[in-house]
Write a structure and sequence with these properties.
This protein is of the alpha/beta class. It has a single domain, classed as Rossmann fold. Helices cover about 50% and strands about 10% of the residues. It has a five-stranded parallel sheet with strand order 2-3-1-4-5, sandwiched between helices. Helix 7 packs across helix 8. The longest helix has 23 residues. The relative contact order is 0.22.
Length: about 210
Amino acid sequence: MKYVIAINREYGSGGKTVGEMLARDLGISYYYKDLERLAEEESGINEALFVAAFDKTKSVRSFLNSGSTIYKTGDLLGPDSPDFTSPKNLFNYQAKVIRRLAEEENCVIIGHCGGYILGDMDHVIRVFVHAPKEVLIEEASRKQSLSRAELDKYVDMINRNRAEFFEKYTGRKWYDTRNYDLCLNSGRLGFEKCVDIIKGYMKVRFGE
């Protein structure tokens, strides 16, 4: 059975942890930050440029007003182009890597607009993991040494940047449930039940 699970998630919802647990349970590959390294191998562009361009801890507004950047399959520029290292071209090289992985192996892909990039593939399950604000803040506090008020603002900033990033490259709203096959509230379900639900959905959709 061929399948790929593409997970988008609110910061603090544990969506990345859910993806790691799912990949481990299924015995398949898990891709998140290593997508930048693979994009470097594909394009020859330094990995650091991919990381810097798509850093969601910083405002993405610096390039949100640079004109249309919506992803199109195969829309790649070579080293001779002055826009070779533009955010759009970096994104498109990363998207090429994501599509190749989805064609070659069963895997879990975290973020990077993976569900949108792979939306035309019948073997892809698109998941969005979210949680109530208090849960997001509690989870964020495990990683960030900030006050309650600062955590509130930090969570909002990261999720706002993710939403703007998604909209810029897809032309769609990040929180629109029509972009996903499953939307899971990890605050109510917990991580293990989120994994169980995704696996149950896989059985219903693809069979045993």
